[in-house]
Amino acid sequence: MQLLLDVISVAPQENRSLLLTFENNERRIFDMAPYLERKPYLMLKNVPLFMKASVENGTVVWPGNIDIAPETLWECSRVV
User: Fold this and answer.
1) By C-alpha distance, which of 3, 12, 7 is closest to 62?
2) Residue pLDDT, tens place only, 17-28
């Protein structure tokens, strides 16, 4: 059974990672670097845009209608 938890906060880091807090209060780090080579994330190579990450509807979003699935964030992140 897949665990589906909402993201409740995000802190973008200069090293292209995301410090995430999920609804169970677990803090995890997600490395975005591998994703920046493919659509729709290519635009996030722009540091000021990457740093505008926020939480909306339980996942991480950026201006320009860019988002990433919360299950990807959970499954591909590591506990801090």
Assistant:
1) 12
2) 999 999 999 999
